[in-house]
Amino acid sequence: MIALALLTGFFFARNYNLAGEKVIGGRSEILRQNTPQNDMREIPSALRSRLLIWQATLGAFRSRPVVGVGAGNLNEVVPRFYSEELLKTFKGKLEPGTSHNEYLQILAETGILGGFSFLTFLVLLLSFAGKVSRRSAKEKADFLPFFLTASVLGCLTASLLSSPLQRPATLFLFWLFTGFLAVFGREKKGPFVLSRKTEEGMLTGFAVILVLCAYGFGWRPIAADFYGQKSFTAYRSGNRRQAVLNIEKAMAFQPQSRELLTVAGNTYLGIGRFEEAIRYYERVTVYHPYWPQGYGNLGLSLAQAGFFAEAERYLNYSLRLDAYQPLVHNTLGAVYLQQGRQTEARKEFLEAINIDPSPIFPRLNLQEMKQKNQIK
Hints:
Blueprint: H1 2-13, H2 29-32, H3 46-63, H4 74-77, H5 84-90, H6 102-139, H7 144-158, H8 168-185, H9 196-236, H10 240-253, H11 258-270, H12 274-287, H13 292-304, H14 308-321, H15 326-338, H16 342-355, H17 361-371
Helix pairs in contact: 1-8, 1-9, 3-6, 6-7, 6-8, 7-8, 8-9, 9-10, 10-11, 11-12, 12-13, 13-14, 13-15, 14-15, 15-16, 16-17
């Protein structure tokens, strides 16, 4: 029974690598250097970044302290409260995600009312778990209550530096183990005491029902991830037609997924189908309006399609949301260069280098401008 639950958890916890490949295509060599952004490949100091993210989460809580910003809404709200230091620290690699603290996330999303309710539940749970563990040790009972208590406590401890309950697999196992702990930990007194065999049969049935419910509610994201992974594999192997077919199937299951929309845009951009790429990147900005990289990707696709004025508008808006994106500065510089605005292009290339000197493309662009005598 426990093995079945763990197997289900593993199935739900799979993380497919849906990051877009580097795109080669476009109207000019200088634009072909730019790639759409989809994930954080490098992150700064974990402790410092968490402190800054926690500050932003508290800012979201203070905006609506009583009832919170709404369950599941933190990702869309918290970017408004990102500090300049946080944006500068991540250098354009920051994506709206969990708050890296389950308790702060619950407080921000549900406010004081929800936070107090969750705190009350935790106090009762920990008190009950301690009582069960002491009784099991005294009676030298089976080890299962200790295992369940350790699992629940481990999840709650990890919640101090991450948000495990935001993941369907961890949330499923947490409530499953909590339910098992409640059943195994109750005192076997009174007229309605069940036999051990009956109790285990009921728990097995309960676990099967939970697994079926999890599959019933979670099959759409699983199917979307399955086709998304197939699309990524096909794209890397050069089978672009199959990549397009699979990404369209994935989008049918999760049409508002930021990751899948971005991968779809990356796929079409990589094969030179700019109209479809623009359409998917536009949907990213509609469903996730506070994600700066979405506007940067849309600007890149418009630039590669030759719509430089519109590309400039979206790239500038992306930098308004997060001014510390070296790739977006580089793309904007390339757009300016295509329009013959050498001074502004040079400024953007230098700004990209100033933010993060590691990418080679801004330096190559400056060298190309010097070779063409466009700058001194």
